[in-house]
Amino acid sequence: MKYELPQFxxxxxxxxGPFSFTQFIYLAGGGGISYFLWQVLPLIFxxxxxxxxxxxxxxxxxxxxxxxxxxxxxxxxxTHALKSKFYLWHQKQDRRTTKQDNDSINEFIPTTRGGSExxxxxxxLDILDMDDPNANRGRK
Length: 140
Hints:
Elements: E1 14-16, E2 19-20, H1 21-40, H2 43-62, E3 64-65, E4 68-69, H3 70-82, H4 99-108, H5 117-127
Antiparallel strand pairs: 1-2, 3-4
Helix pairs in contact: 1-2
């Protein structure tokens, strides 16, 4: 049996001429707000307010950032700006340990387990600190 697979599923359908439905909504919304401001505000104030609105409408309709619509970047920017930020700094612990610390650690870590010597070596490589020359590595 042959099945036809849909292609170009990530491309929106062109409904209103060369524009998709979302592009048309962005452009119609920007045009409607611009027309309303043109009628209500004095000319100089209207032009100052209309220019950013038309720019935003055009960016929402056509501009893509890294292949994704501009609305995704706008959403990420607003949520980052509005959400609370909590940064906590932890001072790093000194990783150097003393011989006394290694001795107390080695008391709890078995250096040999039942089984072959190869399994014991693999276990010791996984568990014990390899940077410390004083650590017991299961050598006899």
